[in-house]
Amino acid sequence: MPSVPCDACALRRVKCDGNNPCWICIKNGQQCTFLKVRRRRGPKGPRKSTKIKLEQLQAQLSLPRANTLDQKPISLGIYFTYLDIYKDSLYTTWPIVSIDSLKARLNDRQTIDYESYALAAALSAATIVQLKLTRSEAMTKKALIMEGEDFVKECLRHRNQCNYQNSININLLLTSLFLHMYYANTGQMNAATFALRETITYSDLLRLGDPFTLQFVYRDERELRLRVFWVLFVTERTFCIQHRIPMTMQKINEFPTFLDAHDINPHSVGGFCELIRLFTYVETGLVQSMPIEQAPSSSSYSKKELQSISTDLDSRTHHLNSLGDLQITDIETTRAWLRSLLWQHAASRFMLESDAKNVQFTPEYPFHLARDLLSFLSKVQSSSIRAHAYSMEVKLSQVAHSLLDTIAVVPSIGQMRGQQYGPEHVVIALEQLLGLTASGKSEHLSLLRSRMVELEVWGPSRLCLTLPTHPQIESEVDDEHESGSVLGAGLEEEINAWVLNAPCGVEK
C-alpha cells in the first residue's frame, strides 16, 4: 500500500517517502508532522445543492402521474355520441370508417382493443373541430378546442399501448389521418405536417393504391383501400398547396365503385368520385404558381394545356342534383378553387388577354369567379359550408386573394371600385364567409385581412352576412331550414340583383 504523506508533502502535492521525518522535510530543514486527518477517497456523498435539484426533479416527474390518475378516461357513451355525429354529418365527406363495426370492437368487454380506441378518439377529435361541436351552447370556442384536445391525449395514450411504430395496418393509418385533420383545423401546422407524412408512410408500407396488391384482396377491402387512398390524396393536395410543401402521392387509375351498407345516399359514391376527378388535375406544375407580379418558374403548363383542363372542369360525370348539400358544396367550391389556380398560373406566365375569347383567360376573370361562387353559396345551408372547415378556408382564401390581385394590378377592375356593386363588396363577403368557417388561429383569415387593409378594401359591404362569425351548429339548424341561405335572409335576392346590375365591362 502507498505510504501516507506528511502534512508538508500533502500540502505541496509532492511524493513523500512516508518516513518520520521524511527525506523532503530533512532536505528543506523543516518540521515533519502527520497531524492532518485524512479523508476517505472517492465520492463523499451528494452536495446540498445536488440534493435540492434531485428533489425538485422528482417532484416534477411525479406531477403528471398524479394528474393521470386523477383524470378519468372518456366514457364510451361520449365516444358513441361523436361517432354517431360523424356517421350522420361527415361520412359522405370521409367515407372510410364503419361506425357500427368500430362500436362493436369498443364494446368488447373481454379484451381492450387499443387500436380501435385510438382510432375512435382521433375520429372524435377531428369531428369536434371539423363541425365546431360543443356539449352546450354556453361553451366558448376555447373550451371547444380543449375538449378535442382531451380526445387527442387519450388517442396518443392508447396508441402508445399498441406499439404503433412497428405495427402497420389501416386502423393506425386512419388514426394518423384524423390526427392530421385535428391539428390542421386547430392551427397546429407543424404537428399537422408530421401527422400527414406519417399517414402517407403508412400508405406506402401498406401499398394502399398499388394495382397489383388490389388484385388479390377481397372486394370490401379493395373498396376501403381505394377510399382511404383517395381521401388521403385529396387531403395531401389541399394541405400541401396552401403551405407550399412538396406533394408525394401520385394519382392512380382505380376509383371506388362499390356501394356499401354505410352509404346513406346511393349516389354518394358518385359524388365522391366527382370530387376525386377534380383533384386529379392538381399537379405540381399547376400549384407552383407565384404571385402574378413575380417571374414564372421553369415548370409550366402551356396555354393549350390550361384550356384543356378548363374544359375538363366544365364537364360533370355525375348529376349533382342527386347529391346532398354537403357534397355539392364541396364539389362546386373545389371547382372554383381550381379555376382560380388556373387563372393564377396563366397570369404568372403572361397568358392573359383582355380580349380573349375564353373569359377564364382575361384579367378580370377572378371577379366573375368570385361573383358566381357567392351566388351559389347563398343558396346552401351554412352547416354545409362549415362542415368542410379547413379545406373550405383554403379554397375561399385562394379565390379572395386572386380577386385582390386583380384589384391591385388590373386597371379595369380598379376603376369599378366605389361603385354600387364593386369588387370590394365581393372581397368583404368572402372575408365574412371565411370568418364563418375559420377555426383556431386562422392564418388564412389573418393574411386576407392584412391584404385588405393594405389595398384599403374595407368599409360596409352591400353583401353583409347576418349570421354570427362563430355560431353554434345545433341552435341554428331550424333557422337555416327556414331561411335556406347561408348568407342571411334576403341576401340571395341581393346577389342576383347584383349580378344583373354588374358594372360596365363585367360580363353578365
Automatic annotation (TrEMBL):
Q: Which keywords accompany this UniProt record?
A: DNA-binding, Metal-binding, Nucleus, Transcription, Transcription regulation, Zinc
* InterPro entries in UniProt: Carb_Metab_Trans_Reg (IPR050797), Zn2-C6_fun-type_DNA-bd_sf (IPR036864), Zn2Cys6_DnaBD (IPR001138)
User: Coiled coil: which residue ranges?
Assistant: none
Under CDD domains, the record lists: fungal_TF_MHR, GAL4
List localization entries.
Nucleus
Record's GO cellular component terms: nucleus
- The Zn(2)-C6 fungal-type domain extends over 5-34
Protein name per the record: Zn(2)-C6 fungal-type domain-containing protein
Q: Name the source organism.
A: Talaromyces marneffei (strain ATCC 18224 / CBS 334.59 / QM 7333) (Penicillium marneffei)
